[in-house]
């Protein structure tokens, strides 16, 4: 049974302090239509610009995730986004009168409670899942960051952190299904090291930090003078607890930092713009890596969409032109005739076919031990296929030649080997003018894209004809 998209049943007003600005921020969460996803509306700015939660809009990840669009920014969005994704909500408009989402208690707990109070409404459309079909990996070698998404019918997340700290050590957190978010992850608070806290204070940041919304990990010897200074800054007696953290709060879980990193990951992956199905495993993730990984998933979604829109042709269908008819149009001959059939032909597109066999002369000298059909000859085959399209616009095409003017954005994505059948689809990017054609060409073997390029060619009349 298909799961329906859902939004919140009524508006929710939430006010709080921004962690870094220290200013009171007022938010109103509003129901939103299908396929809306999550968008912020900066009601304090003229024109109330919209900022969409999208990986392409990420502008900063230094102390949280910031998105920018239409001249407006919203920062520290991840805990609110995690609450939406964790409760499997699809569409919300967030009106906000400041540049930063309230930090509240440093987790998603209060957001989750507020959302559960009003409840949800199912919508007509099915939930727009993106299902991970093949492994998608992201690596930052210098930071030892590794994230991988693997196929799974569900949404499972696993996270490992290791800060090389004797206090924090290595920690793991995991949920086997996103439905566990509320009970296992949502109340895990943000954390920082004492040396980071001091640096942030010195740089006039965390103005909204009051030691009730963050776990402060003490990773060095601390003098009484330093503790007294912190006590004065936060108007609270500050000491080091046995667990190696400041006594500002008690841990909710022994591995609360790892659980919070998992919370951040769930929130940051909302930047993909759709709910996910898959197993995400991450080692040492952070906001920058999460945002980069969301961008990588988005790029894969775009590739999948392009592939979905590509027609897969039957090589055995009755051709528009066979090899003999092609030779009546093109001046090329063996061994340089690169297409065997024309499968489709219209005023704006042409589809050609090339059977790659081991009998071709080129394999005697091109990687004879591991034969691969050269990319440059795939481009030539594209050009010959496109040449049929252009020559189809003039009478007596045998009296004309097609000449290359430009090749752009050529990419070779998969190897082509003997036994493969390549199908080339060439489409005009604009109408043919003065015999000049600009075409987008894609070569496919089955449902795999093997090559693509943008070509410009011109037809010229053969002298003497």
Identify the overall geometry.
elongated
Low-confidence stretches: none
User: What class, by secondary structure content?
Assistant: alpha+beta
Largest sheet: 6 strands, mixed
Measured by DSSP, the beta-strand proportion falls in 25-35%
Number of helices: 9
Strand tally is 24
Radius of gyration: 29 Å
The pLDDT mean sits at 89
Residue share in helix: 10-25%
- Spatial gap, N to C terminus: 67 Å
Binding site for Zn(2+): 79, 260, 264
Organism: Sphingobacterium bambusae
Catalytic activity: a (3R)-hydroxyacyl-[ACP] = a (2E)-enoyl-[ACP] + H2O; a UDP-3-O-[(3R)-3-hydroxyacyl]-N-acetyl-alpha-D-glucosamine + H2O = a UDP-3-O-[(3R)-3-hydroxyacyl]-alpha-D-glucosamine + acetate
EC number: 4.2.1.59, 3.5.1.108
